[in-house]
Amino acid sequence: MSNSILEARRGVGSGLAFVVTGPSGAGKNSVIDRVMERLPNLVYSISYTSRPPRSCETPGEDYMFVSKEEFSRRIEAGDFLEHVTYLDDHYGTSRSQIEAFIKHGNDVILNIEVKGARTLQELDLPGIRVVYIFLTPSSLTELEIRLRKRNTEDDAKIQRRLHVAREEMKELPRFDYLVINDALDRAIDELASIILAERTRIRT
Ligand code: 5GP
Hints:
The protein is α/β, with parallel strands linked by helices and 204 residues long. The chain has helices spanning 3-10, 28-38, 68-76, 95-103, 114-122, 140-150, 155-169, 184-200; strands at residues 15-21, 42-44, 48-49, 64-65, 80-86, 89-94, 107-111, 128-136, 177-180. It has a domain at 3-45 and 106-199: P-loop containing nucleotide triphosphate hydrolases (Rossmann fold), CATH 3.40.50.
């Protein structure tokens, strides 16, 4: 294949970022993990957070766990493309990490809440085309069942997550794709299909 045809497919020097957003408890992590097992050249944007690790989480893989002070220092250093405070904890996407992944020829997948995704939509990211995917269970009732099953938080915190989720659902029309995670295998197929389709897109 000639170089010009390859360039038409990717856009010269451009990479793709897939932002998977939607309410906490929608199953973003499980769907993303399984899609990453399936597709090559897709790397995970490891967010920074000031929240403490859960027992099932690995520092440096699930998150970069840092103190509130370290998080503030990174805000001042300008390393976050976006950052939010979500239920008292801070979460942020590292600009340098994403730029390095793209530079090495990978596409990046981000797992972030809705406000952060909206912030990214306002940014100009040279050399990166961003695709926005909203992932959600079919109802808030379903979401509540999932949050309770996860068994990581008390009732008050679950209620706060549900309240945030209700607000987040209103933003749904602002994103490119909707994946309803009622059946895990189907949600995995759908997210993988979106990524494959966007990788073959030539008209943007
Ligand atoms: P959790 O505490 O359940 O891991 O995450 C809470 C919410 O924060 C989830 O919706 C998750 O997607 C989101 N989140 C994780 N990292 C980031 C980030 O870097 N930026 C933003 N805006 N949200 C994030």
